[in-house]
Design a protein that fits this description.
heterodimer, A: about 350 residues, alpha+beta, 8-stranded antiparallel β-sheet, two-stranded antiparallel sheet, about 20% helix, globular, B: about 70 residues, elongated
Chain lengths: ~350, ~70
């Protein structure tokens, strides 16, 4: 299937929380396709609806779609089953070759495109980009996660602009110097990245969830062109809320309105890291961080319905690679991310 | 919650355990099958490439970016 996708299609991966709301041609085009697939509208009805950015937003538009460049749906499913997806893709190719899909161009294919300001992320080319991984750590007494959660892990990206990064680099370092990370970066790491997303996306911590937050660099070695830093700290994040979860997919009560209420989540990691700064180029050549601690509770989407008791969680960060996918924006609200 | 009463405490994090815990927790995207697909991470950019290559699009749409945190 991988070969078929790479050979016959242009594969596109997109974040729909943005696209269903974007007031631009990128958002309109996605809505034209998804409303034919997920909601079964005709092409004309979907096209007539694309200006409406609130239509059916209480339903998930998640899924896998095959479509032409002018927005005609060729097939769609929301499935994790590779065989089912393969069937959809083969059907899409057959439809492409047999149907008259028209030469219409309802949403301009060419010309200048300007993304809706609210969703315009700018990759920090000359800044610092980290890749974060998170995973459940082994438990001594409670049962280990089973089934689909047995080897669950997730990842995200951390963005730091060049100006912000320079604020982390000491001017005249001496071994033993110790200083706090700049407050905006400390808060960004804590609120958007030191959270439990092992089983799925989680909302960022609200500002008042910060109970303890102290991240410091200590200079460990200095040479003419580099400085090594140890990163250490403690964090305590905790919030209360009312997160209602419907019955699980396999339950007979699915769709009945029965609600499992979660009302707290927390995470109390210790943090340790090692970083190296190239003083000539004023950039980090190493930035490895580990945060391990106890998490508890859960929220609407992070899959902790049956796993709310305190258990160990681990997070690691390191400088991201240079593949196209490593330019993916952080899972966060853009407006809040740089104003943590 | 009183953290001193945790039956499943986290592992000790210090200089001796750092490397092993880093390895255990780091992202492993390079080992995952979905990374063998040549994903384009933006709808508009992907559509432009499909126009140029005269190919249909295969769109993976998720709450949260599929190439990042979902």
């Amino acid at each position: 299937m991988i070969e078929l996708v790479n050979r016959e299609f242009v594969p596109i991966a997109v974040e729909i929380n943005h696209l269903v709301r974007q007031k631009d041609d990128e958002g309109r085009f996605f809505r034209l396709v998804s409303r034919q697939g997920r909601f079964g509208l005709s092409f004309d009805d979907a096209l007539a609806s694309v200006e409406d950015t609130t239509w059916q937003n209480h339903e998930s538009h998640q899924g896998l779609y095959a479509a032409t460049v002018n927005g005609h749906l060729l097939g769609s499913r929301n499935t994790r089953d590779a065989d089912i997806l393969l069937e959809v893709l083969r059907g899409a190719l057959e439809k492409l070759s047999s149907d008259d899909l028209g030469a219409d161009d309802p949403i301009p294919q060419h010309g200048d495109f300007v993304r809706d300001d609210r969703y315009r992320w700018m990759y920090p080319d000359d800044g610092l980009v980290l890749q974060m991984g998170c995973v459940d750590l082994p438990r001594r007494t409670a049962g280990e996660p089973e089934g689909r959660w047995k080897d669950a892990r997730n990842h995200d990206y951390v963005w730091v602009t060049r100006d912000e990064m320079l604020q982390m680099i000491p001017d005249a370092p001496s071994v033993g110097d110790s200083y706090s990370l700049p407050d905006p970066i400390t808060r960004r790491l804590a609120r958007f990245h030191l959270l439990d997303c092992v089983r799925g996306e989680n909302h960022s911590w609200p500002k008042d969830a910060i109970r303890e937050l102290d991240l410091r660099f200590t200079v460990t070695t200095v040479s003419d062109d580099a400085v090594d830093l140890e990163l250490s700290g403690r964090v305590h994040m905790q919030e209360s809320g009312e997160w209602c979860l419907g019955a699980p997919r396999e339950s007979a009560s699915r769709g009945s309105g029965i609600c499992c209420l979660l009302n707290e989540q927390g995470f109390t990691p210790e943090v340790l890291g090692a970083a190296r700064v190239d003083l000539t180029q004023k950039r980090f050549t190493r930035f490895d961080l580990v945060a391990v601690g106890t998490r508890w509770g859960g929220t609407r989407y992070n899959g902790r319905r049956n796993d709310v008791e305190p258990a160990p969680l681990g997070i690691a960060m390191t400088i991201a690679g240079t593949a196209h996918r490593d330019r993916t924006p952080p899972h966060a609200s853009l407006s809040a991310y740089f104003n943590a | 919650m009183v953290t001193s009463e945790i039956p499943d405490p986290p592992p000790v994090l210090n200089a001796s355990t750092f490397d092993a815990l880093f390895e255990q927790c780091r992202a492993r995207t390079d080992e995952e099958k979905w990374t063998e697909i040549n994903w384009i991470g933006e709808m508009w950019k992907g559509r432009q490439e499909a126009i140029d290559r005269k190919k249909p699009m295969f769109i993976w749409a998720m709450n949260g970016h599929p190439l990042g945190c979902v």
